[in-house]
Amino acid sequence: MPIAATGDRIAGFSLLNDWSARDVQAWEYQPLGPFLAKNFQSNVSPWVITAAALAPFRVAQPARPTGDPAPLGYLHDDGDQARGAFAVTMEVLLSTGCATADRRRSGLVRVR
Predict the structure, then answer these.
(1) Is 8 annotated as a binding residue?
(2) Structural domain of residue 112, as residue ranges?
(3) pLDDT, tens only, 29-88
(4) Is 14 marked as binding a ligand?
(5) CA angle, 14 as apex, 13 and 19 as ends, to 5°?
(6) Could you tell me if 61 and 109 lie in one domain?
């Protein structure tokens, strides 16, 4: 399926958080690669955001870093390059027994 046709088949977007156990990954990684560390836990967002709701936040893809190889031809689409990324603002409030930290960041979030 061409990238230009995927918009007709995507109902919406959700988030998946893959929690990796880095302390386990360090010793099991050699020679077989990550196994138990990568199946530690995963959370899926209970929300699905429609493509129409995200349309106002679409922006051009960020420039590729110098030396980063170009994607294969079937993975490149001019329309996707022009409007295939999302500019989002993220707000996080962390609260522990010791302190509360409010972190705000906005801008283009690279997702690959």
Answers:
(1) no
(2) 56-112
(3) 676 666 666 666 788 989 999 999 999 999 999 888 999 998 898 988 998 899 988 888
(4) no
(5) 145
(6) yes
* pLDDT above 90 for 89: no
Residue 80 counted as an annotated binding residue: no
Residues 41 and 83 in one domain: no
Q: Are residues 60 and 104 in the same domain?
A: yes
18 marked as binding residue: yes
Number of folded domains that form the chain: 2
pTM score above 0.85: no
Find tokens 């995200």 and name the residue.
Answer: 54
pLDDT at 38: 67
66 and 18 co-located in one domain: no
36: tokens are 């138990």
38 annotated ligand binder: yes
Say if residue 67 is in the same domain as residue 91: yes
Helix, strand, coil tally for the chain in percent (to 5): 30, 30, 40
